[in-house]
Structure formats: structure tokens, C-alpha cells
Known about the structure:
Helix content: 25-40%
Radius of gyration: 22 Å
Order of helices and strands: EHEHEEHEHEEHHEHEHHEEHEHEHHHH
Number of strands: 13
Low-confidence stretches: none
Mean pLDDT: 93
Number of helices: 15
Largest sheet: 7 strands, mixed
Oligomer: single chain
Amino acid sequence: MRPYPVQLTWPAWLWDIFCCVVDNHGDIGVCWRLACHLAQRGQRVRLWVDDPGSLQWMAPQGHPGVEVRTWQRPLAPESLPEQPADVLIEAFGCTLDDAVQAHWAQAHARGHRGLWLNLEYLSAEAYVARCHLLPSPVSHGPAAGLGKRFFYPGFTPDTGGLLWEVDLLQRQQAFQRTPWLKQWGIDGQLPVQLLFCYEPAALPDWLRQMAQQSQPVQMLVAPGRPHAAVQAALPPNLRAAWQGNGYVQYGTCRLIALPWLTQQEFDHALWASTLNFVRGEDSLVRALWAGQPLVWHIYPQHDNAHHAKLEAWLDWMQAPADVRHFHRVWNGMQAGMLPALDWRAWQACVQQARQRALQQAPLAEQLLQQVARQLLPVVSVTI
Length: 383
């Protein structure tokens, strides 16, 4: 099956995307990719971020058509631009403050037509298809009486799809794996793992397993919480060495500390690795596009709602029993040791799921289709 082939031409709408930075990667990572994907399709985007500092390492060059603005809450009315957006996106329940809502309501009172969307978190659970595109009336605050609409990313055709670039497959085919690994002193002939996680209880077990392999293993460890988690999981005699150096040797496992990577370089790390441990939302989708075996550390929630979310994703992936067991232990849902996996079978499963997801229109394209339905008098889309 070939991937979704169509990229239509749309009017140049103006978008306001509001985002709160959570843990430096997830929410802002998704919003930045979305802003860039819209700009690549001829849209003008103002990305409002409460902490734009993350973009200094995530996207230091910026992107044409994307203007980054600091969202200081509460936002002073004079900080808002005179021209209202055609599309207002409230990302991941960030809750727009009164000034933003009042600005939107005033524009509508003057006859401005626009679309207000709640961009929700990614999930494979059944409720996503039921709630996608449902209206959400605003019942209080300065925008009371107006309405917004839910927009749910997802893995199935009855959802908003996933973020991917039109040239994604071409860039992957052109990627030079060996030179990329060589810059980190990595032998491309040996297994390479990327570790981007929270603090999984099973991490010490996994590191011990890798340290005892007959074949050497190379592990790229992302900075921040993954680096700190590895240090805490290492034997005491290696912790000091890991703290002060870019790498440490633990048995047959060589641990290499990565710096903060741009989004493009993080994609390269996923493409270059033979096994990817990822977390949250953005890196999960990017690992799916990489097509390598992956392990997802889902964001833990205090009421354990993430358990059902993980199981729904495993169902969509059509994951075999050993992979389900591994994920439950990795995510602290089940006690015991991490099981041995048939990694080749899991890779084949990942690639089949990747192909299914690529049949859908990208999320940015589906957003544009929805905006056209709402804002254009008549739109005919033939695919």
C-alpha cells in the first residue's frame, strides 16, 4: 500500500496556536511540528508559548511562516495583535485566559468568521472516534455563548490522524545512517538503542540484561530525565563516572550521553537506532515512522488512566503477547522481570502498523479540510 498521496492547495489562513510547555518535549514538540506543517502548506501561524526557551534547542533556526510569541499569563490585552486569527487552537487543555477569549469574542461581534478548536491528546481508545469534531459550547467567561470544536489526533480513519511531513519517506531514504552514528563514536554494525524515557521501574533490570549480552550493545541516552534515571539505575561504582563523562561502559553495554537535539536530529537518532525506547506523544509517533522496534513509556497519571490508554495502543498495534508483557512491566503495570522478545516479529508488526497509519491524511491536512468546511461557503474535496 502506498501512503496518503494528496496535498491540496488551501487559502492562506492565519492561525493562533496556544501551548503550555510540559517537560520540554511533549506539548511544545507537537505544537511546533504542527505549526511548521501548516506553514509548509502556505499557512501563517502565530505560536503562543508560555516558555519559548525550549525552542532554542528544539528548533534554533525557526521556520518561515511561523512567528513565536511569548504567552505571559494572564496576557495583557494590549499584547494581542489587532488582526484576529482565522483559526484559534487551544492545545492540550491549556485553557485560554480571559484576554484571549475576550479578543476572540470581540472579533466575532464585529462579524469575523473563525474556527476555535480544542486540539486534544493522542490516544487509540474508542472514545476518540466518538468525540472527534464534536461541538463544545462555551458556557462561561468572556467568550460565553460561542462555540469551539474538539479535534482528536488518532490512529484510525475516523480520527484526525497523525503528524507527518509530506517528504518524510524521501528524507528517510536519503538518510546516511553510518556517518550519523560515527559522529557519536558508534559502530553501525552493532545494535544501537535510543533511550528516551521517564523513570521506569524496570530500567535497572534492562541495563543489567544489556550489560550481560554476549554481543556489545550501544545505548544513546537522551538528556534530562533519561540521563538521571540511568545514573540512578547504574551500580554505585559507575554512577560517578556517568555523571562526569559522555559515556560509561557497563559490562558489554556502552552508554553514550546525548546532548539536547533538534527535532530533526532526534528523528535521525530514531532512524539510526535498531531499538527505540520513547515516551509521551511526540516521540511515540516519530518512532512509529522510524519503523524500528519500539517500547513506549506512557506518561503516568495518578488515577492510572494511562493503563487503558496503553492497552488500546497495543490493541491497535496488534502487538503479540510477549510485547504486551514487556510494556506492562516497563510501565509498572505488572511486576516481574522484563521478558525476552522476538524483536524481528515486533519490527514487522511496527512496520505494518506504520503502513496503516500512512494511509490516512496527515493531521495538518485534516485540520485544513475541517477549516475549509467551516469557513468556505462551498468546498468540494475529491480524494
